[in-house]
Design goal:
CATH architecture of the largest domain: Alpha-Beta Barrel
Strand content: 5-15%
InterPro entries: DNA_pol3_alpha_NTPase_dom, DNA_pol3_finger, DnaE2/DnaE/PolC, DNAPol_HHH, PHP_dom, Pol/His_phosphatase_N, Pol/histidinol_Pase-like
Radius of gyration: 33 Å
Largest sheet: 7 strands, mixed
Protein name: DNA polymerase III subunit alpha
Organism: Flavobacterium fryxellicola
Structural class: alpha/beta
Keywords: DNA replication, DNA-directed DNA polymerase, Nucleotidyltransferase, Transferase
EC number: 2.7.7.7
CATH topology of the largest domain: TIM Barrel
């Protein structure tokens, strides 16, 4: 009898999680109920599954509203009814027009209007809902009851949740809680009671009860969760799909392996059989088609993820990972026992991804393609800010609530109420958004399953997330973007333009395991390179002396939080450096994980141990894999596998101690480990970027700068370019583009880096120059470019008119004279005649003024290094390149701060710092919590450091004992304003990052056995 139930998917309205709603229905003796969330079907598929498990008949529908104004309820009689409602709502979402007061002609939808605003004439499928509190109005009613039904909306469960509902409504309408009107909120009666109690209210109107039951009986929405929903065939049948895929695979096999490669042929044939049996030929071919289009446009892509386990993907050019070389098994990606569908993760440059997306939507049709949705949940900080706002707290208190843990917040009654209701909202969906990369390509119109929304990006999204998509039979295509590909692609183009050299960077054999690149790798000389440039990764590369592809593949995975948190990263480093100082603590680890010294590094390793040590069946191994990759949502299923693991270990005679230790290692991977193919894909891309850095360093750094960097700020990549031999020039009106440009070894910074200069103006400068030639003078520039005086001064201060031969001071005087001669009502200077040549005085200018102009306008100096600006001439007792020779010794160094990372420990916050010394060499520091209290960081700049050198497996760090920031020379531009002379240096930046992870275990806490254990011990 419940035809209008809201879950918390009625965003900022409903308060009941879906599982709780169904649990409440069971306790209330409900035999049938409808989920009708407001303008969405987000929860219907989970709802159907859960209802059937408890023998409740699920009805599905939509509560149609315009804003908060109720229009009508639609209930789907069947799948066609859902499609009708979806298309209706999609049309209004796309056109951004209000829903009509009267529902359209639906064939398979039951419509229920409110008693207060029902049309005078009702269609066959239309009814009027009578709420329990409205039954009294029927007394003496002379009309017919044949169109009336029971309408008991459900929105919350308790008085407390009713208050939560009001808070949600206040958040949604952005008003104070006290300002909510009756029309903004539900009535307090929208709760679920027992069916018996509900029907008692309507006992005098049996016709209404009968009508309601008739609707329930007429609605029979059936959904097939088992059949694939993706576009079935690339051609027109499964037979022709597998024939085409076979042809392409054999062509690609010859391209990748040459003729007569027996192992490759056997693998190709095995995979083709599985792909055909599981009917995934179309999925492979559609992916191949997207890649083919990408190649035709000259775009670079990276195929990664578990799809790289497939030799078919390798032969089709989807991935660049040879699964034979790395012993990757296809079953990790696709196997006959695996119910969940596969997916490919494919990266493009952030500049080219939208072109790929447009191709997919145009090629496969906007009716059949959409992005996955995602639910953005209320998060800790946003909860307290949002809830506190509707309680009327001022901004200062809101900031305090958002930034501090609850124990440090105030304890007044309002704050307690904010905390109480805020905690109730944790993990509630707050708003719908677009999945960052997941695309669905459907066989049927996608509105058969969901309404669509059109976000500002311009690509439609479905109203459910990737988990639901997978559950109902969709395999998503992950179309991603990353700046690392832009670095590689733009470098190749720059090298061709600057040096006339064409590099086929797609041929990974030229970069992977290249000797000079391996030397850079082992030294951690990888700044700018995809995935391997962070301080932590560079430190790991040095600790491992990583000089080959396979070690880099392992390093790409052990740096992940799951591996590091379990202690496996530290243990891997030890075993890599001391391969003769440990024993495999069980023969299975030697047999299955010999390549990684018995350390679980990849998701596949966990599966191997679960199967070969624990004796679990393959299906349970897959549950473990999905759980640790964050895709498994059933805690009950995971607990069962855990119980089965220990029971199976016991049957095989393993000791409890050994089994507990191994499962501890397995659990630590949860959500953070890579599959081996994913790590290998990252390693290949890392090698591609490293190869370019080694042989074409200036072009590479310009590409990194133009793709807006990576881990570090622009200044660091400019430093790298300078160390590679580049000469750095400030923006110039005759040489610079919007982005940074390269002429031989001369790097001209782009106008995009000039703070305060509008992008449109920068583009206009370049466009005019390209059209009519170089600017001959300041007057010529002002005649040709519409510019204001302040923007002109920015260009003068940065030296953009230095080719005129005039000093900055002379140019500033000339600019003022030019603007004074312009009409007073003219905001922009558009002179059409040459201007009188003025005799300009020669004004003295300090050599440091340019550097301080640069700090102000670019954020860093280019005319001088930061060391040149110091008052002190001291440059340190020890240079970074000699630190290895000072193990356990105290040294004094002078260095410029590049970045610091905040890390929690049991003793408080500590930092890891990255610095560059006077010679331009990087080194790292460690700052413990007690030391930071006395010697804290004081922003960007140069510091005098005193510390003890600690060498950890070839990698030196300086543990700081004392630290002091050193002052620059006074800013000569403020010689008459002493209080401003040291303000500019405060604009010097640093890169600051933090992590909320638990502290990594120390060596004694890891306690990983380095000897045989349990029943394998001798």
């Amino acid at each position: 009898m419940y035809l209008n139930c809201h879950s918390f998917h009625s965003l900022r309205y409903g308060t009941i999680p879906l599982d709780d709603l169904i649990e409440k229905a069971v306790r209330s003796g409900v035999s049938a109920m409808a989920l009708t969330d407001i303008n969405t079907v987000t929860g219907i598929y989970d709802f159907i599954t859960a209802c059937k498990q408890v023998n409740i008949k699920p009805l599905i529908g939509i509560d149609f509203r315009s804003g908060n104004d109720f229009r009508y309820i639609g209930l789907a009689k069947n799948a066609g009814g859902l499609a009708e409602m979806n298309r209706f709502l999609t049309h209004h979402n796309f056109k951004n027009i209000p829903l009509p007061m009267v529902a359209p002609e639906f064939e398979s939808v039951v419509i229920i209007y409110a008693f207060a605003n029902a049309p005078t004439e009702l269609k066959t499928n239309e009814y009027i809902g009578i709420r329990p509190e409205e039954v009294g109005k029927l007394f003496g009613y002379k009309g017919s009851f044949e169109k009336m039904v029971v309408l008991q909306p459900v929105t919350f469960r308790t008085k407390k949740e009713y208050q939560l509902h009001k808070i949600l409504r206040a958040i949604d309408t952005n008003i104070l809680l006290s300002k909510l009107g009756d029309s903004d909120i539900a009535t307090p009666y929208e709760v679920m009671v027992s069916e018996e109690r509900l029907l008692t209210v309507y006992k005098d109107y049996p016709q209404i009860i009968a009508n309601t039951q008739a609707i329930i009986d007429s609605c029979d929405f059936q959904f097939d969760f088992e059949s694939p929903k993706n576009k079935k065939y690339y051609t027109n049948s499964q037979e022709s799909d597998i024939a085409l895929l076979t042809t392409l695979a054999h062509q690609g096999m010859q391209w990748r392996y040459g003729k007569d490669h027996a192992a490759a042929l056997a693998r190709v044939q095995k995979e083709l059989k599985v792909i055909d049996d599981l009917q995934f030929s179309g999925y492979f071919l559609i992916t191949w088609d997207i890649i083919r289009y990408s190649n035709s446009r000259g775009f670079l892509h990276i195929g990664r993820g578990s799809g790289a386990n497939s030799i078919i993907a390798y032969c089709l050019g989807i991935t660049d990972i040879c699964p034979i070389e790395l012993d990757l098994y296809f079953e990790r990606f696709l196997n006959e026992n695996r119910k969940s569908p596969p997916d490919f993760d494919i990266d493009w440059s952030w500049q080219e991804r939208d072109v790929i997306l447009e191709y997919i939507f145009n090629r496969y049709g906007y009716e059949n393609v959409a992005f996955c949705g995602t639910n953005v949940e209320f998060k800790y900080r946003s909860i307290f800010r949002e809830v506190g706002k509707v309680f009327g707290l001022p901004k200062e208190e809101l900031d305090h609530l958002a930034k501090n843990p609850m124990r440090l917040q105030q304890s007044n009654s309002v704050v307690k109420e904010v905390q109480e209701y805020g905690m109730l909202l944790e993990k509630y969906p707050n708003q719908r958004s677009m999945h960052s990369c997941g695309i669905l390509i459907s066989e049927e119109p996608i509105t058969n399953y969901t309404p669509l929304e059109m976000p500002p990006k311009g690509f439609p999204i479905v109203l459910f997330d990737m988990h639901v998509a997978e559950a109902i039979g969709f395999e998503k295509f992950d179309i991603l973007s990353q700046r690392g590909i832009g670095h590689i692609d733009d470098t190749v183009k720059l090298v061709a333009k600057n040096r006339g050299i064409r590099i086929n960077i797609r041929d990974t054999s030229i970069s992977k395991n290249e000797a000079k690149a391996n030397t850079y790798l082992a030294k951690g000389n990888t700044i700018g390179c995809f995935y391997i440039e962070s301080p932590a990764m560079r430190g790991l590369l040095r600790r491992l002396k990583c000089d080959n592809y396979k070690t880099l593949v392992a390093a790409s995975s052990i740096i992940r939080p799951g591996v590091a948190k379990s202690g496996m990263m530290k243990e891997y480093i030890f075993r890599h450096n001391h391969p003769n100082q440990f024993e495999y603590f069980h023969t299975v680890f030697e047999e299955q994980l010999g390549e990684t010294y018995g350390i679980m590094v990849y998701q596949e390793d966990v599966i191997k141990i679960a199967l070969h040590f624990g004796g679990l069946p393959a299906a349970d191994g897959d549950i473990l894999r999905r759980a640790m990759s964050g895709k498994g949502r059933s805690l009950a299923a995971l607990q069962k596998v855990k119980d089965d693991f220990f029971a199976s270990c016991a049957k095989q005679g393993h000791t409890e101690t050994l089994s507990q230790e191994i499962y501890r290692q397995i659990e630590s991977f949860a959500g953070y480990s890579f599959c081996k193919a994913h790590s290998a894909s990252y390693a290949v891309e890392s090698y591609q970027s490293l190869y370019l850095k080694v042989y074409y360093p200036i072009e590479f750094m310009v590409a990194v700068i133009n793709n807006q960097g990576g881990f570090y700020r622009t200044e660091v990549y400019i430093h790298e370019a300078r160390m590679a031999g580049a000469t750095i020039y400030n923006p110039c009106v005759n040489k610079s583009e919007f982005t940074t440009t390269l002429y031989g070894e001369a790097v001209y910074l782009g106008f995009m880096h000039l703070q305060g200069l509008a992008a449109k103006l920068a583009e206009a400068i370049v466009k005019e120059r390209n059209r009519n030639g170089d600017y001959l003078s300041l007057e010529d520039f002002c005649n040709r470019v519409a510019i204001g005086l302040e923007s002109l001064k920015l260009l003068i201060f940065i030296g953009a008119f230095r080719e005129t031969g005039k000093t900055k001071n002379q140019l500033l005087i000339l600019a003022s004279l030019l603007f004074n001669s312009a009409p007073s009502d003219h905001q922009m200077l558009l002179l059409q005649e040459s201007v009188k040549e003025y005799q300009l005085p020669k004004l003295e200018r300090s050599r440091f003024e340019d550097a301080f102009d640069e700090i102000e306008l670019l954020g860093f100096p280019t005319s001088f290094t930061p060391f040149d600006l110091l008052q002190s001439t001291y440059r340190g007792d020890v240079m970074a390149q000699h630190l290895l020779q000072h193990h356990k010794k105290q040294v004094r160094m002078l260095a410029y701060l590049i970045s610091r990372k905040q890390v929690p420990t049991v003793r408080g916050t500590m930092y890891f710092g990255t610095w560059v010394d006077f010679e331009g060499t990087y080194f790292d520091t460690v700052h413990f919590p007690d030391n930071l209290q006395q010697y804290p960081f004081q922003g960007g700049g140069c510091y005098l450091l005193l510390g003890t050198v600690e060498v950890d497996y070839h990698f030196p760090t300086l543990t700081i004992l004392k630290m002091a920031k050193l002052p620059f020379v006074p800013d000569p531009r403020y010689s008459d304003a002493k209080d401003h002379q040291f303000l500019t240096q405060q604009r010097i930046k640093e890169d600051v990052s933090s992590t909320s992870r638990e502290p990594y275990p120390r060596a004694h806490e890891i306690n990983l056995p380095r000897y045989k254990m349990g029943n394998d011990a001798k």
